[in-house]
Amino acid sequence: MELSDSVVKGLQTLADPACFDLKSFSAFTEVAFDSLLSSTGNGVSGHPALKNIDQALLKHCHVAATTFILEAVKQNADKSTISSCLEDVKFDSEKVETFYTSYQINKRNLENLLSSIDRCPPHITDASWRLEYCIKNGHVHKVNQPSYLISFDVENGEREGTSSEVNFSCTLEQLQDLVGKLKDAAKSVERATQL
């Protein structure tokens, strides 16, 4: 597996016994897998066994570990591939075994998670807007500001015929910023198609 320098550095920090002993590594591994599979998890900063570790370092290691986990699942990596990659970044045999055990337990759920991700992002099929002028707010203070109510009809390319609406409100400055970003995106797509 090819990993970015940032991921390699994060994994090397995880391998360092001065930063993560086996107990904290086991807790970290459990939290890393849970964070991928659960939307209600507290993350790495909320676990009591990881409170003594620098939070910035902990977050970097979490990103590296979850990236490695997802890449391993995506490539359907076996034990020898995972062991080889982890040993290359200086994991000892106990940490490799701990990681691989968690990987085996959670692999099926992670495969289901990755397969549920849509291949085709939703696209905007129609847009409408309305100008709203706010005279007073809920506290009976004068506001006298216009705002724009924007509505996008969005269609999902995977499931034909399914559409939904995305509604939001913005000020004139926010609307101008949105239009500018959309124009930049359109130019980028146009340049990319010409290559």
Strand and helix order:
HHHHHEEEH
E-strand count: 3
Mean pLDDT: 86
**What can be said about the biggest beta sheet?**
3 strands, antiparallel
Shape: elongated
Organism: Astyanax mexicanus (Blind cave fish)
Domain COMM: 123-193
Pfam family, one: COMM_domain
InterPro entries: COMM, COMMD3
Structural commentary:
- The chain is of the alpha+beta class.
- The chain folds into two domains: 5-115, no CATH class; 120-172, no CATH class.
- Helix content is 53%, strand content 18%.
- The chain contains six helices and three strands.
- The protein has a three-stranded antiparallel beta sheet with strand order 1-2-3, with helices on one face.
- The protein starts with a helix and ends with a helix.
- InterPro entries: COMM, COMMD3.
- Residues 123-193 form the COMM domain.
- It comes from Astyanax mexicanus (Blind cave fish).
- This is COMM domain-containing protein 3.
